[in-house]
Amino acid sequence: MSVAVETLPAFPFDWNGTRLPAEVEALRAEPVRKVRTIAGAEAWLVSSYELCRQVLEDPRFSLKDTSAPGAPRQYALTIPPHVVNNMGNITGAGLRKAVMKAINPKAPGLEEWLRARAGELVDALAAEGAPAELRTAFTDPYSAGLHCRMLGIPEEDGSRLLRSLDVAFMNAPQEIEAARLNWDRDIAYMTERLDDPATGGLMAELAALRDDPEYAHLTDEMLATVGVTLFGAGVISTAGFLTMALVSVLTRPDVRDALAGGRGVTGAMDELLRVNLSIGDGLPRLALEDVRLGDVDVRAGELLLVLVEAANHDPAHFPEPLAFRPERENAADHLSFGGGRHYCPATALGKRHAEIALETVLERLPGLRLAVPAEQLVWRTNFMKRLPERLPVAW
């Protein structure tokens, strides 16, 4: 007698960033649901706002341990396992103060630089004329330039570091050779910057610590890792959100009207983050012990994936979640920056970075529109961020 075996739904669901995946609505009745990951492992997909926040805030669910040998994987690692808990490593090494100083949006001259750089890029678009491709001509160089400035490395080197990110943030079932090669190359580059007298910013501060006996435990590789990871995670997150915010502006009249209205971009930022679909996977956590989660008993050693887009569109917490309402009182409750111990420390910088960019684009290119039908946008697959491969626009 044969026994029926349940076929688990594959996760992620849909890479099209102009719509909430259809599966999200079905998950409302089963907010903790087993799925099959890209790596072939079983995982609990958590989708209600209440339970997603619980997982992110409960120390019994660990990010660091998702990289442990033998742990079920969402996808193959593209970075060394110990780097998964990057901010934890930075804090443990005594470098958090230096990093937080570098990512402070109120750092002297930073806002002026953001406005000037955004203006330069938009002026260059206008001078060249339509059509233009917003990712390569605006969002990517704008975000990469910001991170080069913070790290204190030449802005022209941003393009070489950017090339690594297309592979570093892939979701693949097995290890990727190019990811390792890129990692080694980028670590070598950042290591060289430690001894370069022209280096400034955070990398210069880190280099100076090598003369302090209190930091004798630090190696050049550890310091270079800070630079590589801050550039990679920072650029992919800020450029990804900004790109998808522009997708919302270009495909949703309600978003465009709200941003151009009385509240402006700043007043609408949290709602824009709430509806943003740039997070293409789930935030992973490993259960350290048996935990009751909703109606499900999660066992120690099992993988959980927090589905941010579902939490941010949970009608139990955000009434009429598909509507874009900048005046929404609890818009700032969104989980787009994570939560708990791993809440993104660059939240304020990410917001200001996007606000200035969107204000500049809307002011200088008020007629901005997609230059191709929205259904012709090509969406990147098996990637940690939802991204259109190209974003052609006219004005």
Automatic annotation (TrEMBL):
Name of the protein in question: Cytochrome P450
Transmembrane segment boundaries: 222-247
Similarity annotation: Belongs to the cytochrome P450 family.
Keywords noted in UniProt: Heme, Iron, Membrane, Metal-binding, Monooxygenase, Oxidoreductase, Transmembrane, Transmembrane helix
One matching Pfam family: p450
InterPro entries from the UniProt entry: Cyt_P450, Cyt_P450_B, Cyt_P450_CS, Cyt_P450_sf
Signal peptide: none
Top-rank lineage group of the source organism: Bacteria
